[in-house]
Amino acid sequence: MYIFGTQYLRGATPERDQWNRDMENMRKMGFNTIRAWLVWNACERADGKIDHDYITGFLDCAKKHDLNVGLLFHLHAAPDWAIKKYPQYFYMDEDHHPFVPGIRANTPSGGWPGLCFDHDEVRELEERFIRGVISETKKYDNVAFYEPMNEPHTWVDLAKKPSGIFCYCPASTKKFQNWLQKKYGDVETLNNAWGHFYRSFDEILPPRWMHSYSDYTDFRLFNMDNVVEEISFRTQVIKDCDNKPVIAHAWGGGAVTCSQLGGMAFDDWKNAKVFDKWGFSAFPQKASDCSSLALGCDATRCAADGKEVWQSELTAGINGTGLRQNGRIDDNTFYKFSLESIRHGAKGLLYWQYRKERFGSEFGGFAMTDYAGGPTNLSRCAEKLCGMLQKNEDIFNNYHQDQAKVALIFSIRSYLANWVSQGRGDNKYAVDSINGYYRMLWEENIITDVLHEEFFGDLSKYRLIIIPSPYAVSKKLAEALKEYIKTGGTVLSDPYFGAFDEDMKLSRQVPGFGYADIFGCEEDDIFLRDSVKLMAKQGPCQITGNSQMETFRNVTADVLYSYEDGTPAILCNRYGKGRAVLSGVNLGLSYSTRALVGDDFTSQDQGNSSMIAKKIVMDLCRECAIPANPCTAEGVKVSILKTEGNADGAVLINSLPAAATGEIALDAAYAKAETVLGTASAKIKNGALHFTLSEDESAVIRLHK
After folding, report:
1. Residue 398, CB-side half-sphere exposure with 13 Å CA sphere
2. Which residues pair with 473 in a beta bridge?
3. Cα 592 from chain centroid (whole Å)
4. Sequential DSSP letters for 241-297
């Protein structure tokens, strides 16, 4: 069974008198799974008294309609009795003001962000609630999974500019001090890293107001680890009570696409290790956001490290809330969002959400149904897609794709350096840089992995590794890349490699970590430049949408491109059996859509498409023998889903406003091609899949072996 369904219950909505009809309609559409938020203040309205009738009534209704249910413990919504009883446990902002819980977009019933879980008594309240709920829910065989926290991250106050970060209460401060002591061992080692003069760890307070790199980076890394500790605690409580899988998902495209990662402080790779299955949420708004959606999918797949991946919250297709409504997306865009998720690894698909929200700032938003829960073009598309997935579950439950030969590095330290550099504003440069590189590869149907700078595994399987935003890469990664290049690999780096050392201090030489010999140059200077002219053998060319322009001295590397004044701009150096390519301009940034796919942040930045930037990267891919685009039709995205069974699958997405005809090279023999979604014509001829797609159309082809 391919997991397919929707988010449904959240606090007061939908009301109980709607459950039976809605679930009956969901089952008719083929849905098999719904996700329900057990909002703390909706379920425990009096101290120690859980409303089991509300919870089990919902599960009984779902069971009647043969629907599995995932239960999320939404403990960010403190009950009013707890708010009144425990004001000493409120989160505290940097000015030492307690944050009184209230309404937030995803918690219209109030109580957000709950009570600070760094206090032991709050943990005891959480455990009591979880155990109390599961004492009844464990009796239900249609409870398919539990979630201990929605989109695990550190919460931020988005009403402040820059966003307010937390928590500065005594309990959180003490945990931060203990984390620092574990990391550094003694206070003199910390002083050397931070440039401070503390006498003991208990003198250290979390940084606030004006930025500094070393201390702020440690504060946010601590918060990331603190989130892992909390979800591990809740997960263990759940597992003590029931043997159902415990899953969770990353916020809005994951850490790689989060422009406020410094504030929200979460690490997909660390979080994913806690759970049985992993996923992410995504709220793209238009078809051109598909490359950002796909980036989040591939990063999530890599963070899961072999575990099953779900698209746990995919926009159901309404853009806008309240009085700022933009209407529903069209059918073709709905299919694109869904199939991008599936073809990049999602083995389950849950939409946000079934019904329009009746309360709070998400009023009228996000639903696939109309005001009364009736059908729309979106629900009809979902029904058609669901039917196709279930009929072809032998493919979609069991497929794999070829191993990626290209990898992008996600340097979380560089994201934090970007965030601090912008005065805690955002880390958009880092997000947009990886977005642009990924878009180049995605357009050419090149399978790509995303590697965390601390969790990267065997690098030797990649022919090309690209490092967007390399200014604060970890020492661990830098040392591993040296060996990778030495033994025959190729690395492409953006400007300012290793400018921050292991302690986030300024390196004494750039490139850092001893990479001057590897790149065959030293940095001379670095400037802010939006547009840069490069000189190539074929003549001048322009890079636009750039950020940095780095110049070099003591150059022993080959010069691939020069600046207008004839000085080196992009260098290639032989090191051991491999090559190290250093670009003085931000190639990825100059090809970024600037799109974000989280629901909390949107981007109005203008995207760029500097074709020379893409040419430089694609030339390098060819030199590294990266498998070329298997599809002859420009603008068509393709994935071949391979199985061990009697059939494989092909997902085709036409991103152009015109019909597309072409062929796809196949590396296996097939008897025939059958279109199972869409109207595409498809046939097997001379070892290739020949197809015609209508304008803007997506299709799924069953390839019979």
Report:
1. 12
2. none
3. 16
4. H--S-BEEEESTT-GGG-TTHHHH---HHHHHTTSSEEEEEE---SGGGHHHHHHHH
Q: Which amino acid appears at position 258 of this protein?
A: C
The Cα–Cα gap between 581 and 480 comes to 16
* Vertex 162 angle, CA 159 and 167, to 5°: 75
Taking alpha carbons only, the member of 5, 6, 99, 85 closest to residue 44 is 85
pLDDT at 178 over 80: yes
CA 112 to CA 251: how far, in whole Å? 17
Structural contact between residues 247 and 310, judged by C-beta atoms closer than 8 angstroms = yes
Instruction: Evaluate the omega torsion of the peptide bond into residue 353 and state whether it is cis, within 30 degrees of 0.
Output: yes
pLDDT at 607 over 90: no
Report the distance separating Cα 119 and Cα 123, nearest Å. Answer: 7
Selection from 363, 251, 259 nearest residue 318 by Cα: 363
- Give the separation between CA 571 and CA 163, rounded to whole angstroms: 39
Q: Cα separation of 475 and 498, whole Å?
A: 9
Which residue carries 């009364």 as its tokens?
Answer: 372
| DSSP H/E element including 342 | helix 331-343
Burial class (CB in 10 A: 0-12, 13-18, 19+), 269: buried
Tokens 């957000």: give the residue. Answer: 112
Query: What would the pLDDT profile of 385-439 be if each residue is shown by its tens digit?
Result: 999 999 999 999 999 999 999 999 999 999 999 999 999 989 999 999 999 999 9
Residue 384 token pair: 């058609």
The overall longest dimension of the chain from CA atoms, in Å, is 76
For residues 313 and 9, give the distance between their C-alpha atoms in angstroms, rounded to a whole number. Answer: 13
- Dihedral sign for Cα atoms in the order 614, 620, 622, 624: negative
Instruction: Copy the structure tokens of residue 590.
Output: 């100059």
Could you tell me where the DSSP H helices lie in 351-453? 377-391, 393-396, 412-421, 428-443
Torsion of CA 70, 699, 652, 435, to 10 degrees: -50
Helix and strand element counts for the chain (H, E): 19, 30
How many whole angstroms from its chain centre is CA 310? 12
This prediction has a pTM of 0.97
In the beta sheet, which residues pair with residue 665? 688
CA 690, distance to chain mean position in Å, is 34
pLDDT band of 319, cuts 50, 70, 90: confident
